[in-house]
Design brief:
About 30% of the residues lie in helices and about 15% in strands. It is an alpha/beta fold. It has a single domain, classed as 3-Layer(aba) Sandwich (Rossmann fold), CATH 3.40.50.1110. It has a five-stranded parallel β-sheet. The protein has a three-stranded antiparallel β-sheet with strand order 2-10-9. The chain has a two-stranded antiparallel ribbon with strand order 6-7. The chain is globular, with a radius of gyration of 17 Å. The chain starts with a strand and ends in a 29-residue tail after the last helix. The relative contact order is 0.17.
Length: about 240
């Protein structure tokens, strides 16, 4: 069985020199045994529209087959109203673009699963702000109207980050000071969208837990214990063994 990921930079693959940045799609493999292959096609900066326009959708369409699963997470870049190549309106063509993924997967006898956008780390007066609300709402509506399984990653990730609070949540994103001595960011960085290794692993755990609960064929393949995702210290890369 194959699990395909169509998404943006929060799930994407990164080269070793980009460490400690990881996308959650890089470590989702740690939720499965050898009988499942994760095919991560998520790409930096893509929206539901540009992912199709730039040919990545077609690659998945060529390779996906009956019994596979297609995870679909977009919204971060769909909101970029200043860029017509990526922008989709949450109350308009966002649903239409997403529907193409659902139709393709079903035509291939594969199982589509919609995933609402993972949260950004944005606190105002101590309260985590939902920066993707219109897109998450639109995706929930599409899932309901098309009877498509949904992982509400917006809700799950917001609950997790809000529970940690502003300071404690920093370690799960690319937030470093020069004193942290991170080779890639010698001058420090504050990136509240993309994940550190620990953040990518925890988000993959959220996705895996919901996949296990969906009662789909792939649900039975999710490992009951996932030590490669629930780690307290970085492992130095996207591997699954401590």
């Amino acid at each position: 069985m194959q699990v395909f990921i169509a998404g943006d930079s929060t799930a994407a693959e990164y080269a070793p020199e980009s460490y400690p940045q990881l996308g959650w799609g890089m470590v989702l493999k740690c939720a499965f045994g050898d009988d499942v292959t994760v095919r991560n096609y998520a790409k930096n900066g893509r929206s539901s529209k540009s992912f199709i326009d730039e040919g990545f959708f077609a690659q998945i369409e060529t390779e996906i087959r009956r019994g596979d699963t297609l995870l679909i997470q977009f919204g971060h870049n769909d909101s970029k109203s200043e860029d017509p190549k990526r922008f989709t309106a949450p109350d308009g063509d966002y649903k239409a673009w997403l529907s193409r993924y659902l139709e393709m997967a079903r035509a291939k006898r594969a199982q589509p699963v919609l995933i609402t956008p993972v949260t950004r780390r944005k606190f105002e007066n101590g309260v985590l702000v939902d920066t993707h609300a219109p897109y998450a709402k639109a995706m929930r509506e599409l899932a309901a109207s098309t009877r498509t399984p949904l992982i509400d990653l917006t809700a799950d990730s917001m609950k997790w980050i809000a529970g940690l609070g502003d300071d404690a949540s920093k370690r799960f994103y690319l937030v470093y000071t020069p004193e942290d001595h991170v080779a890639r960011f010698p001058d420090g960085i504050v990136d509240n969208t993309h994940f550190s290794e620990l953040g990518a692993r925890r988000v993959a755990e959220l996705v895996a837990e919901r996949m296990a609960q969906l009662e789909l064929p792939v649900s039975k393949r999710v490992l009951r214990t996932r030590p490669g995702l629930m780690v307290d210290a970085p492992m130095g890369g996207p591997g699954c063994n401590r």
